Amino acid sequence: MRIITAFSDIISVIPKNRRGSFRKFVYASIVFSFLDLLSVAYLIPAMLLLLDRQKLASAFERYGIDINVFSPQTIAVTVTLLIAIYVVKNIFQSRFNTAQYHFLYQLSRELSVDAITHHLGAHYPEHQQQGKGIFMQRITTACRDFSTSLLASVMLLISETLTFIVILSVMLCFYLELTIFTLLGIGLFAWIIYSIKKKEIIMINTQYKEAAAKANAELVNIMDGYVDIRISGQSAQFIGRYANEQRPLDQASALLTATSANYSKYLEIFLIAGTAALILYSLMMPEGKDAFVLISVLAALSIKIIPSINKILNAVTMVNSHYYTISLLRRNQTALTDATRYDGFDKTISFKNIDFRYPQGEPILSNLNFSISKGQIIGINGVTGSGKTTFLHLAAGLIIPDSGSLYLDDGPVSGNPFFSFTGYVPQQPFIFYGTVLENITMRQDAARIDYDYIEILLKNLSMEMLHALPQGLDTVLQHNTGRLSGGQKQRLALMRALYGRPQFLILDEATNQQHEAMERRIYEFIRHVSSAQDMAVLTVTHNPDIAGFCDRVYRMENQTLVPC
């Protein structure tokens, strides 16, 4: 029952459009495994032909097979067929292996895309609560481990187990006592190995699930905190913390690799013990039984049996060690609430009797009422932590109030809203890996790019210097690049927001890294765009001079907005 449940869990992670391909690869894997067995079966008379043709002739005569084993032609045909069978089989098997791993790595990529799609489609609060370390693990390591380690091992486990069952079934028909003895030996061997390795396998699975996320989180700390870490002189502490988080992961990987390698050593012991038992059995065989034929048959089968046992043990270990991926990847299958798209409004956005708190948190907004019309610029100030940014998230449709309603003109906003008409510039500007032009247009199709408007934005936001970069607007910027100053990053993020010609522009202290003259220039331009494009602007700022550009100013206090 546990095996069936585990298999169902594994299948549930595979995308539905890929399950058919997975089944085909499983079937093909079984076919090739049986071809291996048949090729070994053909190897038996070939071995006897080489070892003792007289005994082979006697065996053929006993079973009524009319073949002249002393003929040079028979020997030549047998050897030629043997070579041909193995060459053809291995060529096709090599092609199958190539196709199989192309499928598995493609599946890994698709699972990563699904995880990213789920991430971007989830509610904003879920994004806020998710650590970057676990997110990176879900996107990269878990997808790769599931596809190329767990799923590949499942295919191998199915095909090798079925082949092993067939071998034992054939042996039961011809050598009942020996087969029963062999089964008992294999069962005892498997139980001993499982008992020894059970705790290690559980530990590996746990470490892979927990340690990788923590190590990734420390890497994010180091990447994002370069300047602070260097200036503080605490580099050794951050390096040490990363090393400490990485150590359990390395230990688990080393243990898994060693376990897989050591199975062959354990099998050597089993093989020697089995060979000794086989010799004793052959000495005690009753007359009339051909011990030579028996030993030859079992010797040939051992070419398949011993590797099969090794593969089965390794497959079981890999499945158990990477089972952690199931729980991580099944999160991507959580049903997402379809977003209700709102493309704009005619006159006013209103907020009526809004209450909001984060889970297990204190109330942040309470009985808040507010409205803004097109063409207006409204400023908000207030002490840190008073709820200003939360209100902006609400205005942008990123979060949903616990009670109260948002209205676009006279129509209430419902469901999980997506406001496609907004432009949002946060306190910390987002600069992603890509060209300057991509950072402005958010990778818009080249044919649709409005270069004339970009030039207007560059001029009015004093960003003409971007043309002076080595490749101009085609210069590639790194994630949160240090190539631009904080103020330049803010203006680049503002260009991006304005380039989309939003009906509603939301600024969360988006100019707090500008000098006074630059900040005034920016707001003069925003005032011009607001008037020319009938754009509503909601801005959080602590600069009293900016109030002169606003039609109204509110203060966030006591969980609501109060007119100044």
From TrEMBL:
Q: Where does the UniProt annotation locate this protein?
A: Cell membrane
Keywords (A to Z) from UniProt: ATP-binding, Membrane, Nucleotide-binding, Transmembrane, Transmembrane helix
> Where in the numbering of this chain does the ABC transporter domain appear?
349-562
Q: Which PROSITE patterns does its entry note?
A: ABC_TM1F, ABC_TRANSPORTER_2
Q: How does it sit in the membrane?
A: Multi-pass membrane protein
Q: Where are the transmembrane segments?
A: 25-50, 70-88, 146-168, 174-194, 266-285
List the molecular function annotations (GO) for this entry: ABC-type transporter activity; ATP binding; ATP hydrolysis activity; ATPase-coupled lipid transmembrane transporter activity
Of the GO CC terms on this record, one is: plasma membrane
The residue ranges of the ABC transmembrane type-1 domain are 81-321
Q: Which SMART domains match?
A: AAA (SM00382)
Which Pfam families does UniProt cross-reference here? ABC_tran
PANTHER family reported in the protein's UniProt record? ATP-BINDING CASSETTE SUB-FAMILY B, ATP-BINDING CASSETTE SUB-FAMILY B MEMBER 6
Name the UniProt record assigns to this protein: ABC transporter ATP-binding protein
Species of origin: Flavobacterium magnum
